[in-house]
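Fill in residues.
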């Protein structure tokens, strides 16, 4: 795998004090298969970012379950269309990570009833089609949000709309952490609660969906409408070739 430069290091990746390992067996990956590749995006640049802290808790769970996890650090990402031709190393790496991934986790704070600009910028940097490669189509997706006030689902609903637009398979379960400032200790670790248990649920479901869908990855990006367009183009090219000769 290429040497990625814009990743967030995960502190204490194996420290899972809240996880009951007796009822969550590790690494339920079929024998002989590689670890599911999961890209994680979060939506805040604050020093104490609760969307990042929730993402890191989710990453530890995924690693315990056997996933190969990468957390993208968006701090150096320019705004969409800010750099000519998107010629910026952070943009290129984000796209490469998305292509690398088999599943993704998107976690955003709720700001003014919706996702943050940081979250949307990351998604906007991912084209549907890039030189014949589709960076998001067919990948599984889990959505999460954190809120400063009472529990809300505006942000996860918006992320679901975006996931559908990006042609991803968004899993049914989701996480919404209310009053996130009360849910983490001084070291940034999540406190025991139903919110933590729900994140475990979501990550377990993401792993299962990713493993179940992996054998069908090529079929998920094979669309009738696109095959029709390609056939029409081939017919037109053949006709034009005959005329020119």
């Amino acid at each position: 795998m290429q040497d990625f430069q814009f990743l967030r290091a995960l502190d204490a990746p194996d420290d899972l004090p809240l996880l009951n390992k007796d009822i969550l067996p590790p690494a339920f990956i079929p024998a002989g298969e590689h670890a599911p590749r999961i890209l994680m995006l979060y939506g805040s640049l604050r020093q104490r970012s609760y969307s990042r802290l929730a993402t890191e808790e989710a990453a530890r769970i995924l690693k315990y379950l056997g996933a190969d996890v990468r957390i993208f650090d968006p701090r150096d990402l320019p705004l969409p269309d800010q750099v000519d031709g998107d010629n910026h190393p952070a943009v290129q790496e984000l796209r490469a990570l998305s292509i690398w991934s088999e599943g993704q986790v998107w976690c955003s704070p709720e700001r003014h009833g919706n996702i943050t600009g940081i979250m949307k910028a990351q998604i906007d940097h991912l084209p549907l089609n890039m030189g014949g490669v589709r960076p998001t189509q067919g990948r599984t997706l889990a959505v999460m949000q954190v809120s400063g006030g009472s529990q809300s689902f505006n942000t996860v609903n918006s992320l679901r709309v975006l996931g559908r637009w990006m042609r991803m398979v968004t899993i049914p379960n989701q996480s919404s952490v209310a009053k996130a400032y009360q849910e983490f200790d001084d070291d940034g670790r999540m406190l025991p609660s139903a919110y933590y248990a729900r994140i475990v649920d979501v990550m377990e479901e993401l792993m299962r969906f990713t493993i179940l869908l992996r054998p069908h990855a090529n079929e998920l990006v094979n669309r009738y409408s696109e095959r029709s367009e390609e056939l029409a183009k081939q017919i037109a090219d053949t006709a034009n070739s005959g005329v020119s000769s």
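The chain has a mean pLDDT of 93.
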